[in-house]
Amino acid sequence: MENLNPYQIAQVQFDRAADKLDLEPWMRDLLKTPDRCVTVNFPVKMDDGSVKVFTGYRVQHNDSRGPYKGGIRFSPEVSLDEVKALASWMTWKTALVDVPFGGAKGGVVCDPSKMSRAEIERLTRRFTYEISDIIGPDIDIPAPDVNTNAQIMSWIVDTYSMIQKRNVFGVVTGKPTFLGGSHGRSEATGRGVATVALELLKDEGLEPKGLTAVVQGFGNVGYHAARIFVEKGVKVIGISDISTAMYNPDGIDVEDARKYAEKNDFLLEGYDKAEHLSPKESILEVETDILIPAAVENQITMKNAGNIKAKYVVEGANGPTTPGADKILYEKGIIVVPDLLANAGGVIVSYFEWVQNIQKEQWPYEMVVRKLEEKLISAYKNTRNLAEEERVDMRTAAYMIAIDRVAKAIRTRGIYP
Ligand code: GLU
Question: What is the pTM of this model?
Answer without folding.
Answer: 0.98
